[in-house]
Amino acid sequence: MRDHTRLYSDGSWAEPIDASILELTDPADGSRTGSVALAGRADVDRAVAAARRAFTRFGRTAPRERAALLGRVLAEFDRRAADLADAVTTEMGAPVGLARDAHIPTARLQITTALDVLATLPFTEPRGDGEIRREPLGVAALITPWNFPVLQMVGKTVSALAAGCTVVLKPAETAAHTAMVFAEIMDRAEVPAGVFNLVPGRGAVVGEALASHPDVGVVSFTGSHATATRVTVAAAPTTKRVHTELGGKSPQLLLPDADVSVAVDTIHQFMMAMTGQICSAPSRTLVPRERVDEFLDALVPALEGIRVGDPRDPATGMGPLASAAQWRTVQRYIASGVAAGARLVTGGPGRPEGLPDGHFVRPTVFADVDNTMEIAREEIFGPVACVIAYDTIAEAVDLANDTPYGLAAYVVGHDADQLRDVVAALRAGAVLVNDAPFDWTAPWGGYKQSGNGREFGVEGVLAYLETKVVHRPAATAAP
User: Fold this and answer.
1) Given 79, 278, 285, 360, which residue has the most CB atoms within 10 angstroms?
2) 165 noted as active-site residue
3) Which residues contact 328 (CB under 8 A, 6 or more apart)?
């Protein structure tokens, strides 16, 4: 249990100027895990001013200097990996195995990838008699969510630092334990004063203050569409860049020759193991009508076999939802599905048997879902899967694309021609074919209301760079 009473600004731990206190609780049993001081506007101004001062030097550093800095961050990250994993379990109820084997390695990969980018990306290129220069945008405001806190904090931060930007990080207030360990890592890595600053706080206060701040050059936001709209509006008067990675209602499309076991594994791996708290969850599965019963016969026992419970037990396969508010939201959607006439195949309302406390939810499957139902249209962010029947592949593609979102899609099948055509037709930022391993060095982002930017890999670094063209006179010809 830790009480985080100070903010990290200008290279030191500072008392907040006008903060309030938020109590933090364990989603598995409701016990108190500590508290965090939530920053106010004056704290944002102090952090941005420090980042602005630091940028005058850090923005002009050579890639090798920034690589040396990230090398120190990597060493400290490795030293504190167990603490980060424990914080994720404490904050959001991620099972210990998932925190250790997914949350931490994916975040670590962002540091090594940024180092690779620094070694290979040409920040200056000749063009005719002049040159093209890629230069940092300035102070980067990074606004991160609670559901994958280590990956998001690390990924955004190291991409911005690799580009030469200085950083003001606003983590989700409920991810304070993770954020404070990360700030300690940055401090121990001897990041220069003002280059990294941490201001936990509420989006309506800290997020909007950062977005509207005239000394912030770029905002990177991950979260809900509604909050992204407010951030974008706040940023508009200063015409700064705003990159957003938002929600999804991702389809999984089973082709007629699909292996249903692959589709079941996709739902387990990319949805249920994370209690559905992942924006790319395959929450709508489109199945040939004649194979729906076969698919359900494979899916239902697999989900009913998931051990739901204490996230600190290594045998647990699915932990609780992160908060009481999210638990209530998921319960409302389950009730909505029943009321709309969808067939509840397994799971349903309430907590699993034997778990009277905590924010636990039953892995839930609805069949006979119409794509116009609320459970098929809106992001539930819980372990609720919808099964939708289709008659033709063209209909399935139309159903897959019939969503305001476009973050991810999943396709299962063997026919190479069908796979090629379906992948080309899907409007999504990432398409995973046949349970392929996810490449966390590839650019990540979505179409439509799933956002307008890309992060991770070289594209993640490019998001924090501006292009300058230098025109020079042609060299005088030799006599």
Assistant:
1) 285
2) no
3) none
